[in-house]
Description:
216 residues, alpha/beta, Rossmann fold, Jelly Rolls, ten-stranded mixed β-sheet, four-stranded antiparallel β-sheet, elongated
Amino acid sequence: MTSRCIIIANGDMNDYHWHKSLLQENDFIICADGGTRHALAMGIIPQVVLGDFDSLSPEAKCALSDTGCHFEEHPEEKDMTDTELALKCCLARNPDEILLLGVLGTRYDHSMANLFLLARIPGHIQAKAVNEQNEIMLLREEVKFSGSPGDLVSLIPLSAEVKGIFTKGLKYMLRNATLDQGSSRGVSNEMVEAEASIRIKDGMALVIRAWDQPRN
């Protein structure tokens, strides 16, 4: 069993120093195809690189050729994105925690599909997608998080309805509330304490913590 898996996809990663600060010595790192460029830019050697390799440069592959990195090539015509393949590989290791990097970018189709992958991760695994200005978690029952007063927190329903919503530590409190899919009511709440939580009785939602300026 692996304690924590890191998936590095081929989306945007602007501040390599900040992203590298998230990594720990014993992380198991899986790069989805072109995400390998981000790992190399951070001076990181992944354990696995997989995908159809349409965005893996020859230079990146050459740089990893003698490092012990395992390459897993898939056909271009397939039923999963490279990032979902990386998640499948990650889940096979039964980790306690999964951190997704480089999953957001200018390709909104890939960005949305990558965020929905959070719903494919079993509830007992802690998982989130992050970049310099966002931290995104899946809410099935309850999520707890730390921060500072004024930090923005949004609740985006994924299911048709999210019922029995209770919040703690947020400016706009919800008590046994219901949010419908497509509702913007849960956008831009604020933390008023150092610790906050959101609990629901039924449904599924994304909890998005956002910062107006990149964290460093």
